[in-house]
Amino acid sequence: MKYAFIQAHRFIYRVEKMCKVLIVSRSGYYRWLKTPESKRAKENRRLIEMIKEIHSDTKTANYGSPRMTIEIQNRGLSCSEARIARLMRQEGIVATRYKRFKVTTQSDHRHTAAANLLQQNFTVEHPQSVWVSDITYIRTGEHWMYLTVVIDLYDRQVAGWSMSHSLNTTGTTVAALKQAYKRQQPTESLIFHSDRGVQYACEEFRELLGHYKYTQSMSGKGNCYDNAVAESFFKTLKSECIYQHKFASHREAKTAIFDYIETFYNKKRLHSSLGNISPEQFLNNYHQKRYAEYVA
User: I need a surface site. Which of 4, 114, 180, 292 has the fewest CB within 10 A?
Assistant: First the structure.
């Protein structure tokens, strides 16, 4: 690989200088040039190109060797995780680290909190049986924006979401819930889980839940782990999308978030809790299994 480095940088640095720094002989380098590239070397070169292509996309820059391997296999190349890990180390390619962010919940209000029905049990057997929701802040050049999401706990798809200029209930939780319902229209047995924020505890939102005949559930006071799935989504969103941009306007932010959620996260992003397949594929697998059981 030292010779390959010299070949790639020969128009930038002198060959003699690079050979000296890398402790190889010039004669060895020129012999290497005359030697046909092996099948293995060609495969590695192609894999490295694909690794760099995937890593250069901000949405997939946080892929470590396990997800990187699956993504490459999905693109039609055969490879092992050990091989991809070695090539990533060789090229100095590491997964982007998540930044910490603060989620603020307005839980100091007069409304009564609902019981915690989940108790940190985030595994469900069927889609549209439990939805989780949360709100986060996004900075733009115009003002702060507020993103509300509703996530299906089964396949981790974002079922509904909204962006608002303020934290009023109509533009945040109500708007996101209405979109989720319009898209999926789940049965009346659904549990809707959130933190104790006023946007979830107020009468306007509870009336909408009552209209849909959904059961409300809320996290314990001050326990962020009770709503870990929604907070984990925000952590991923901010690392792979929000922190990669400086939004000049509300419109720019909404466009980027729409692209991330609707064209990447729900449809393409490999999700570790789903066996490293996308939420959409996980749901498709569920329906295919149910259909096979029905016709059997």
Answer: 292
